[in-house]
Amino acid sequence: MAMVCLSDFEAYAKKYLPKIAWDYFAAGADDCTTRDENILAYKRIRFRPRMLRDVSVMDIRTKILGSEISFPVGIAPTGFHQLAWPDGEKSTARAARAMNTCYIASTYSTCSLEEISAAAPGGLRWFQLYIHRNRAASQQLVWRAEASGFQGLVLTVDLPYTGKRRDDVRNGFRLPPHMKVKNLEGAFEVCKMSPLDPSVTWNDIYWLRSLTRLPIIIKGILTREDAELAVRHGVQGIIVSNHGGRQLDEGPATIDALVEVVEAVRGRVEVYVDGGIRKGSDVLKALALGAKCVFIGRPALWGLAYKGEEGLQDVLRILQDEFRLSMALAGCASVSEIGQHLVQFSKL
Amino acid sequence: MAMVCLSDFEAYAKKYLPKIAWDYFAAGADDCTTRDENILAYKRIRFRPRMLRDVSVMDIRTKILGSEISFPVGIAPTGFHQLAWPDGEKSTARAARAMNTCYIASTYSTCSLEEISAAAPGGLRWFQLYIHRNRAASQQLVWRAEASGFQGLVLTVDLPYTGKRRDDVRNGFRLPPHMKVKNLEGAFEVCKMSPLDPSVTWNDIYWLRSLTRLPIIIKGILTREDAELAVRHGVQGIIVSNHGGRQLDEGPATIDALVEVVEAVRGRVEVYVDGGIRKGSDVLKALALGAKCVFIGRPALWGLAYKGEEGLQDVLRILQDEFRLSMALAGCASVSEIGQHLVQFSKL
Amino acid sequence: MAMVCLSDFEAYAKKYLPKIAWDYFAAGADDCTTRDENILAYKRIRFRPRMLRDVSVMDIRTKILGSEISFPVGIAPTGFHQLAWPDGEKSTARAARAMNTCYIASTYSTCSLEEISAAAPGGLRWFQLYIHRNRAASQQLVWRAEASGFQGLVLTVDLPYTGKRRDDVRNGFRLPPHMKVKNLEGAFEVCKMSPLDPSVTWNDIYWLRSLTRLPIIIKGILTREDAELAVRHGVQGIIVSNHGGRQLDEGPATIDALVEVVEAVRGRVEVYVDGGIRKGSDVLKALALGAKCVFIGRPALWGLAYKGEEGLQDVLRILQDEFRLSMALAGCASVSEIGQHLVQFSKL
Amino acid sequence: MAMVCLSDFEAYAKKYLPKIAWDYFAAGADDCTTRDENILAYKRIRFRPRMLRDVSVMDIRTKILGSEISFPVGIAPTGFHQLAWPDGEKSTARAARAMNTCYIASTYSTCSLEEISAAAPGGLRWFQLYIHRNRAASQQLVWRAEASGFQGLVLTVDLPYTGKRRDDVRNGFRLPPHMKVKNLEGAFEVCKMSPLDPSVTWNDIYWLRSLTRLPIIIKGILTREDAELAVRHGVQGIIVSNHGGRQLDEGPATIDALVEVVEAVRGRVEVYVDGGIRKGSDVLKALALGAKCVFIGRPALWGLAYKGEEGLQDVLRILQDEFRLSMALAGCASVSEIGQHLVQFSKL
């Protein structure tokens, strides 16, 4: 079967992954409304393409926090990559480096952050973390990430408790015994996730800032009010995210929330978005609405499930080609020409 | 089969209840548009969740008419619980007490109100009544309810005549001979419902008030005009309800009507809502839009059908857990923090 | 099978009528969008029901052009009733009289207007006509209708040419040889319909007026502009109609067009509507939006197909019961209490 | 099977064409959203039909750039007609001439433009072209077209690169070896389409103008901004087109884009539209919204696939009959009476 678009990888992963792993990756909270809305919301945005602009030389590179990437698509933090491919996050890191883009490694990786770093030296990587009840544990992770060459810290703020994902409850999901959350080994049991601290507030941003000189990117913001607070608390970037629809069901689609966050931020920090990206033209829409870069979650896992590092590169390459083509067909030769004039919200 | 969410109980009840009983509980008037809209309307409401608020200590208790309940979900009045479980309303009363919430017993119970009281002494209960052509019969019921420790009277006003529920007509629905409408025994035949008085007007509220010192809650209000009249006629509470879509088809979904009723009432009396609640996040939406508490009808019956008192407790516990989790994920640690800022109406 | 609602009659007719007859009655023009929209548009209207109004004595009678009918539902003109029942329009006339309502007999009846009159003396009947190229033929029909006791003339204006009904073309629909368009016998071939004059204009209303003292009702108006012209040309009534979606596809649903016609007419003449009425509550909606009465087309044919005169009475009786119940549940005890406050247009 | 409407031809073509050819003709870019929207958007437009206007003599002729055509429907440029019928574009040319309408021959024809001309001398034809990297090749085509009697040049501007049509990629679509892109024979390989120049800008319109006295029609405009630029650069006509949804997916439906283009152009040049025309009433809608004429793409191919020249005439004749009937039923006796008052956008 030819792999022509991202749905082909999804179909492959659904067919070949063990059901419990597929269900875990696919899961959304409750009725999965928000998970599905993330995708549907892109369909309600229409392009206003411009013609007869010289698009013979296309430049799709961009920079995030000063680092150049080959195109504005990075890898969002997702857990347990060994469920998709034996080499797990090491393959992810290699694919991201090969494609010259950014990989946000999850705390809940099945490889340690040191292993991830060693697997693809020189790649652009950020480290995703939660704040634990045991602040020392978080502190250790920050220091290890900094020492291992990660260039940004992504603080996830939408998981004071884990969302209710019905299939995981039905399946009694837990990691197979031969896989470990390597970053936290010995520290605590994974499945309960009790170590995460639900009392975290905005003040903890200051504490985190005090630990590191790495830029802090806050992930999980969905409202203008929280975007304003994030800027005021000194973060360097915001990822508009609803955790792939896995936390609070029936919140906004991320592409819809992006609009209000971008408006509130007024360019003071970089804004990114994840959730629902399935085509290169989705990337173009997100950029037109003010995102500096997007991150893909499940599609990266489908790529891994298909052929590990190589499969993920296939996914990224398809997105890259589609993004470049969409840009050209919309009349933009470089990322700097993308703007809000390219899109309008459909009334339907 | 694991019971993970309320739909699991629905599927169980549909599978194991006799068809005629399932049809009776499930029935909506005419095309069942309003019955289904009650659910769909919740899906059109989107959360605006806030992050990084201390949600380590969650307080989901509330008070209705001065009585504390463990969380803002009570049992709406529905008839004929013995169709779902042999012990009928006695089990319902026990489950409500065990979960420390309010149970509104229906006039059309298959246990008498005295039996209900005796089954769960000390539980918070309101009694639902209609006004009969024979006013003495209504008067008797009010006095018996007061004497049996019921703490509120819920007057249903949307049933001057019974709605046209096609399946009940086709099935020739009537109570099996071994079940009785115990509260009315001897007084009249049940199936015709002719005893209800279609000439009742707002003035009858004064008459009802003259009979009892119990608070009067009016159930079945759907417009601002009637909400204003209810307040002026001195009721203590309003339940926004369309009788589960069993009366006038193609009226508003209750969650939509709630908005205009809350606006009209301006805090002068408590406002509740029933119809369409299927998840803890629906409760959160109703509270965000101004309801003090919600009541569940069919889901309670599904719980009874599953395992009687225990099954209903399961249903309530799931709703409670989901409500608590939704609150936390939306950034609210106590019911008092819930407000309209948490929601917006989707345009789709 | 119990006949509980109008869809039951539809299902029966679809099952038992010859396909060619069913197709002819069911046909809409082109994609049948307007035919189906007539029904869907009712679903987008929501009631705002009022409670606690004395509805113990219900009065559902109304008057059209001064004649009292038992409830505001008449029989719209449709052709070829013998396709549905051997006695054809004679049965229709008898059923309408039995239910004390108005029957608009079609020019394209399979009984002559004299036969129709003789079948149910004393019934309230209007006669529907087109203007023919041969004006004398039209004149004859008018005089015969007047002589036979018809009390109104309904001029259909939306058929300068016959709409394209694909199934009729595929079926090669034509009347079976043993049926005749009795009103026009000898005058011309039916299937081509060429006798109708596509050059008719508003001035022909004056000509028609000059022929008769009967009130003239114009059928097929869909815009405020034409409603204004109709009033200015002295008609006594307007039937908002799109010919059951059989003429121009993708025009407005009649209940939507009713709103603008009623607004334009400002009470100067009576306004009626046909198309899409399937439940008593649809009648209530039409009256709330300003119709004085509605007319049913296909449902009458289904009733005929079921049991002739008796079947049509069943259909009318069901609509009557449903209309009365809807009124009561919406808080209206008489037709005069119905008003626009009872409805709102859903945004969905 | 009777051919009653255009869908009948579509069904025939889908059944009898080789899959690879059907897929090529049917293909849309990416998710085919825009391809399908082109059709759906027509369904959201409602007529406001007027009654009692003399429609006994219908005149459906119109003029485009001064040439009279029998009705406002021409043949849009599509490639590879031999995939549908052995005689290819020669049949198309003959059918267009027989129906007295305009045929826009594609550069990517499987007959040369000289063959096309010779097949139907005297027919009204325009020639569609792209601007090639090798400007001399384009120049040659222009001169050959002018020499062969083509009366207009249609410059397609929405294909700097070919859109991603998944089925074509999966099928590895390429012309069968016995077919040739005759207009370009020897010049380059067809399947790569690399000869097209993605550096083309508005200035190239001046270059094209300098080559020929033929009117220039620009095809592929979707925004008011580009419409304004087109007028300023001196084109004689604009075809609002999204290339049948084969280029940038999720741009606007053409009938929606038509509105803004017509507004911007303010009558300074003629505006046409293609995409989604499936019924005569679609033609009427496009004209009501300001198009001077519409062009059909896929339906013409279905006609060819059915019976070559004769099949395409059938398609055109059906559209013509439907258009005439729609006009009459909407109250217009000639094209000049068609205006915006005839339509409104449905909110649904």
TrEMBL record, chains A, B, C, D:
Q: Which residues bind glyoxylate?
A: 24, 165, 243, 246
Question: What is the protein's name according to its record?
Answer: (S)-2-hydroxy-acid oxidase
Coding gene?
Hao2
Q: Which residues form the active site?
A: 243
Superkingdom of the source? Eukaryota
Question: Catalysed reaction per UniProt?
Answer: 2-hydroxyoctanoate + O2 = 2-oxooctanoate + H2O2; a (2S)-2-hydroxycarboxylate + O2 = a 2-oxocarboxylate + H2O2
Q: Which Gene Ontology terms of cellular component type are present?
A: peroxisomal matrix
Question: Which EC class is the enzyme in?
Answer: oxidoreductase
